[in-house]
Amino acid sequence: MNAFKRVPVSFRKTAAAVAAVAGIGALAALPAPATASPASCQGDLSGKSWLNVEVTGVKSSSGLIAVTVYADDSSKFLVSKGSLDVVRFPASQGTFRGCVKLPKNGVYAIAVYHDEDGSRKLNRTGLGLPAEGFGFSNNPSTLAGIPAFRSVRLSVPKPGLTTRINMTYP
Fold first, then answer.
1. pTM for the full model?
2. What is the pLDDT of residues 82-111, one digit of tens each?
3. Which one, 65, 69, 79, 131, has least CB within 10 Å?
4. Residue 29 belongs to what H/E stretch?
5. 10 phi and psi angles, rounded to 5 deg
6. Closest CA to 64 of 41, 45, 84, 92
7. Cα–Cα distance for residue pair 74/56, rounded to 1 Å
């Protein structure tokens, strides 16, 4: 028999109230987390998860930082209309921090680019190469071209995790 069931109801309620108050006091003593809450996250995806995105090496505050979220499907990675969502934030020189909504915990791929002219598209050179800064989750090498999908897959097992992406400029 469970010993807790033998304790009078009034005692259990009092003990629960004391534990709750003690827990609140303990939480108040902790420093505020550096991650965003779901209320401050951006995007059209409705769901119970979110991802903090930190982009380092942004060369200027002009334009937008575009964060593109892809599902765990290599056939949709970097193709037209293949993303789940694109969220745009005002650029911030140095390190940019933003938060994007996700449909649920799971595996995603993240691509970012610095839309310096605010055209809402990645400008390309005459050879088709990016003319603006870009980066991917897990920071794979892009010297040989577009990274393999398996190298950018990012596991998000719980809400509020942070991924750090290094911006690369041509």
1. 0.75
2. 999 999 999 999 999 999 999 999 999 999
3. 79
4. helix 9-29
5. -60, -35
6. 92
7. 26
